[in-house]
Each structure stands twice: as C-alpha cells, then as structure tokens.
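Lecture notes, unit on protein representations.

Consider one protein chain, 166 amino acids long.
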Amino acid sequence: MDINRDFPYNQESESDCLNTIAGRVVTKLFLDNLFVSALTFHGGTNVISYSWGSMNHAKYNNRKYLVPESPDFVAFDGSAKAMNEAAGHSTYVKKASKYIRDYVLGDMTTTVYPVRGGMEDWGYAAGWDNQSKDATLFNCSPKTYPLDTSVIDLSKENQEHIKCNV
C-alpha cells in the first residue's frame, strides 16, 4: 500500500483509505494541529507541484490530463517558483557522474499524474471540498487494521480546519 494514496479524499470506497499506520499518523497530525504549509518528498523525479492532483478535478483531453487552477493557484505557483529559485539550477556532479536537473513546476496532475487518496489534495481541501462524494470522506473502513474512531475522528466538523498549502 502506498501512503501517498491512503487519505480520505477522492477514494472509490471507504475501504480504500487509512489502511497504513503511516497514513493514520499523518491524518491524526493534521486533525490535531493547524498546518499552514507542508512539503512532501518523493523519489524518482524533480518536481515541485501543488494541487490539484486528484481524479475528481482531472479531465482527460487530447491524450493528457488537465485540471482547473485551484483557488490558491497564485500562492502555490509563487511558492513553487521561490523554492525552485532557492534550489539552484541544473548542475553536473562530477564525483557522481550525473546531472541534477532543474525542477519541473506545476499542478500534480500535469507534472506527475492524478491519483485517488492523495495526501496533498486531502491536506489542502479536506476542510472545504466536501460537497460531493468524490471529494472528502467522513468515514473510512480500512481493509487492514481496525480504525479506532475515538482516536481518528473524520467528521466534517473535525476536518473543517484542514486547509494547508501542501
């Protein structure tokens, strides 16, 4: 199971979320604390991306996925550009005989690909993108370990403060 896709957002079923202990820990941290900004690190690609990266916002058109700008696109894009500038530019590392490439900037859907249950979109939108069954879930029934709802309360009221720049 992939922790990056284990969150109660845009899942096909209530049994598709919070199946990993790590997913539950991150969920509990977000439920109990107010995060304004957060970063996730993934191996395999040089991308600084932001919302949207979920299937419920993606449209497939002309052999590629497209998404509308998120409500906070200007802030996300500006932050990504500042991080990219601070990171420096492509360079060749002689001892490793390899290039470190510049970062690709943009929403997760077009820079990587859309997913269900993504931590980034849940962390950004769980507090307000909850008007349809395709967005925030308020109940999870994991296939793995039983979920103690007295410890992780996914009620609408408990998730309404989750509005983080991830």
